[in-house]
Amino acid sequence: MRHLLSVSDLDAATATSLLDTADRLKQALLGREVHKLPTLRGRTVITLFYEDSTRTRVSFEIAGKWMSADTINVSAKGSSVSKGESLKDTAATLAAAGADCVIIRHPASGAAHRLAAWLGREGGSGGSGPAVVNAGDGTHEHPTQALLDAATLRDRLGSVAGRRIGIVGDITHSRVARSNVMLLATLGAEVRLVAPPTLLPVGVGDWPCRVSHDLDAELPGLDAVMMLRVQAERMRGGFFPSAREYAIGYGLNERRLAMLPEHAVVLHPGPMVRGMEIAPAVADSPRAAVLEQVRNGVHLRMAVLYHLLAGAPEVR
């Protein structure tokens, strides 16, 4: 695996291998007073974030440090980007400085692919530049989020294949939804998107999923439901009448939680807007796996770095 830019880079075997590696890394760290593995000692991992982040950025940093990599954070607000430096020049700088892996979050869809192309050329004719991980590009994709969600579903449900997963809310602006639909379908799940028509993207009919506008009708048949935040910062114009109306139609409250099968799990990629897409009592319920997603995110991102930078099948 050269880069991780999209879940379309992953077939079922590769995705499963990443999930299995994350499980082995989790087991390798159990009982250790110091959470450190020597696997990536001497490697340099740079996080390059042009958008704000808590979970993704912190978990990548922890993942790199737990594997003994030198981990460096670069933000647009505190770098030469704020002086007008282009992404291409920033990429060249990072490659010249000796980065082995660049993890990028950017508001422009496709930015991670462009970065990988530039870094490949900067690496010379052999294409030996740094590996690139897409940590979210615009409204396009967020592949490591989809992988950690799949890891959480495996932990809670035993398997992903054959399960029916609902993804609810602002599909149009959600890179998490796009990556999850593709990855879950690749792993054999049946995916249902539930949203008002105004929050479904053009072309959704070509995605490997079914679409519904009726949340109450879908809940009794789901093994898991993933609630999405309404991304007001990406919206231009009115997509629904009010936050209250949205919560009435598409919020997961205690009444709707009771409509799910007893084994069903609730996911949310965060940050949560409590009282809008998810009620506080649901977010704090034992059936919610929100913090498990965060914990699994560290191990999953360790696995991604391991596959990109170590490339060996064993974990020591």
TrEMBL record:
It catalyses: carbamoyl phosphate + L-aspartate = N-carbamoyl-L-aspartate + phosphate + H(+). It comes from the Bacteria. Residues 162-308 form the Aspartate/ornithine carbamoyltransferase Asp/Orn-binding domain. The keyword Transferase applies. Residues 2-154 form the Aspartate/ornithine carbamoyltransferase carbamoyl-P binding domain. Its EC number is 2.1.3.2. L-aspartate binds at K83, R175, R229. PROSITE patterns: CARBAMOYLTRANSFERASE. Keywords: Pyrimidine biosynthesis, Transferase. Carbamoyl phosphate binds at R55, T56, R105, H142, Q145, G270, P271. Pathway: Pyrimidine metabolism; UMP biosynthesis via de novo pathway; (S)-dihydroorotate from bicarbonate: step 2/3. InterPro entries: Asp/Orn_carbamoyltranf_P-bd, Asp/Orn_carbamoylTrfase, Asp/Orn_carbamoylTrfase_sf, Asp_carbamoyltransf, Asp_carbamoyltransf_Asp/Orn-bd. Pfam families: OTCace, OTCace_N. NCBIfam families: asp_carb_tr, PRK00856.1. Belongs to the aspartate/ornithine carbamoyltransferase superfamily. ATCase family. Heterododecamer (2C3:3R2) of six catalytic PyrB chains organized as two trimers (C3), and six regulatory PyrI chains organized as three dimers (R2). Catalyzes the condensation of carbamoyl phosphate and aspartate to form carbamoyl aspartate and inorganic phosphate, the committed step in the de novo pyrimidine nucleotide biosynthesis pathway. This is Aspartate carbamoyltransferase. It comes from Pseudonocardia eucalypti. The lineage of its organism: Bacteria, Bacillati, Actinomycetota, Actinomycetes, Pseudonocardiales.
